[in-house]
Amino acid sequence: MKLSNKEFLEIAGAIALVGSLAFVGLQLKLDRDVALAQSFSDGIESRKEDIRAKMESESYMLMLETLWESGQRPQWWLNVSESYESKTLNSGAQIMARFFEVELDYLELENLYFRFEQGLIDENHWLGAEQLLSSFLTDPFRRAVFLNRRSGLSETVNELVAVIDSASET
Q1: Helices 92-117 and 140-148, packing angle to 10 deg
Q2: Which alpha helices (H) appear in 57-153, and where do they start and end?
Q3: Cβ of 17: how many Cβ atoms within 10 Å?
Q4: What are phi and psi of 106, to 5 degrees?
Q5: In angstroms, rounded to a whole number, what is the distance separating the alpha carbons of residues 166 and 55?
Q6: Quick one: which of 17, 14, 12, 16 has its CA closest to 3?
């Protein structure tokens, strides 16, 4: 069967059309992934700004100090009562300021993890962040704060804690 020039051009045109539609579809997916990551990142930045505002608010920190002095403790505090921070920080406001600093670290790691899950950052970059996260989790204060959080990063945190705990048992 011999193809005429016209038939050959029609087939080539159809293949080019399918190829260009596949390219457009891929580009739309990538654009969507980038927009989703940007939206997530914007949300993280907004939460970080809220935390910074609390840290800078004298009245908020005074309220935390008053609650601390009255004996009220956050749920995560039970797991860190023997930590370095519990022995070196002298007030509820200082401990909560440290808590907010740890929260900022967590949010940054959560943002990195989300971008990694979306395929927007290199695996080696995430592996470096995961090593940092693992080192953070050896500190009782950070561990308690991180384990109290619920996010996409929670499963990774729980897995790393299990690895750290099993290594310390041997």
Answers
A1: 60
A2: 58-69, 84-88, 92-117, 123-136, 140-148
A3: 10
A4: -60, -45
A5: 36
A6: 12
Q: For each of the chain's 170 residues, which pLDDT tens digit applies?
A: 577 888 888 888 899 999 999 998 989 988 888 888 888 888 888 989 999 999 999 999 999 889 888 988 887 777 666 566 667 777 888 888 888 999 999 998 988 888 888 888 889 999 999 999 999 888 888 888 888 887 777 888 888 888 888 887 76
Q: 3-class DSSP state for residue 58?
A: helix
C-alpha separations of 45 from 10, 48, 105 in Å: 52, 5, 12
Q: Which two tokens stand for residue 15?
A: 């293949």
